[in-house]
Amino acid sequence: MVKVLFVCHGNICRSPMAEYMFKDLVKKEGLEDKFIIESAATSTEEIGNPVHYGTLNILKRLGINPKDKRACQIDFEMYKNYDYIIIMDKYNHYNIVNRLGHMYENKIKLLLEYASIHRDISDPWYTGDFEATYEDIKIGLDGFLNYLKSNDLIGE
């Protein structure tokens, strides 16, 4: 079982978009039973809030229903137990390590790095550009799944 946690600042825009798009992607590949996929925030600002309407609109357009997703904050158990902590920007890395320590830091990686792109995914909360965020997340998720497949990292 591959355990993946997508993380952004508030867990209402980028990380839930990545979570639900990746769930949809692995389902279409017939791999959904091989993954545990969730998302979380580094901050407490949005805890309990639903997915932002900009992300919700994109997911609905893709035929994806984020159900009753509510923002939650990454905790030490998540940090310890997930195989991959996939972040949207470098600030998320700082926040995780600052709060939870360096012990599992090797699990943390920027999503776009899986597509050999070394930059952050912009936060649409500030840019207002949910389409650009969607495009970046799609590229990163495709790269991540290809990475797992090419390295034979998807368990039986």
Explain what the structure shows.
The chain has six helices and four strands; from the N terminus they run βαβααβαβαα. It has helices at 14-28, 53-61, 76-81, 90-100, 124-127, 130-150, and strands spanning 2-8, 35-41, 84-87, 108-110. A four-stranded parallel β-sheet has the order 2-1-3-4. β1 (2-8), α1 and β2 form a beta-alpha-beta unit. α1 (14-28) packs parallel to α2 (53-61) and α1 crosses α6 (130-150).
| Biggest sheet: strand arrangement | 2-1-3-4
Q: Give me the number of helical elements.
A: 6
What is the average of the pLDDT values?
96
**Main sheet summary:** 4 strands, parallel
Structural class: alpha/beta
Share of residues in strands? 5-15%
SSE order, one letter for each helix or strand:
EHEHHEHEHH
Shape: globular
Helix content: 40-55%
**Span of the ends, CA to CA:** 7 Å
